[in-house]
Specification:
Structural class: mainly alpha
Number of strands: 4
Strand content: 5-15%
Distance between the termini: 67 Å
Largest sheet: 2 strands, antiparallel
Order of helices and strands: EEHHHEE
Length: 146
């Protein structure tokens, strides 16, 4: 279940972390040697994906860790880490989709079971009434003859 958020271009992306932390492009640049105007959309996607999803980035000091990695190895280091982070992100999205699909199927099946139960109750009532009616024709009511 996602409980961590990172804001990218006015969109909220989620990641499985232990607390909610947000980091924007300007905050990243303030912590690093990166220049805001030099980070294009693709560069920021690499940085933010690694920040949000790579397992080496902790949920406590993540901002400092991603900044230190960038300052030590530059964008190239983060690009090397991107494939792992992206795979985790895609797996998490697949898990979230499967969870939603499962919830939807469960609701659908519960609704179908409710309908079946209503049909069962109706048919059972009709059968009981038919038995009572036939018993009445034989002059048997409540286990006694008329």
């Amino acid at each position: 279940m996602p409980i961590y958020k990172i804001v990218l271009k006015n969109q909220t992306k989620t990641a499985t972390k232990n607390k909610e932390i947000e980091m924007n492009k300007q905050e990243f640049c303030d912590r690093t040697t990166a220049k805001y105007e030099n980070l294009n959309e693709n560069d920021w996607n690499v940085i933010s994906t690694v920040y949000a999803y790579h397992p080496v980035i902790s949920n406590v000091n993540g901002k400092d860790e991603i900044a230190a990695l960038y300052n030590q190895g530059g964008l190239g280091l983060l690009q090397d880490m991107y494939n792992t982070a992206n795979a985790i992100q895609l797996n998490e999205m697949a898990i979230q989709k499967a969870s939603v699909d499962l919830e939807n199927m469960t609701k659908k099946h519960q609704a179908n079971l409710k309908k079946l139960d209503e049909i069962y109750q109706t048919k059972t009532g009709e059968i009981r009434q038919g038995i009572l009616d036939s018993m009445e024709g034989n002059h048997i009511i409540e286990g006694r003859y008329k």
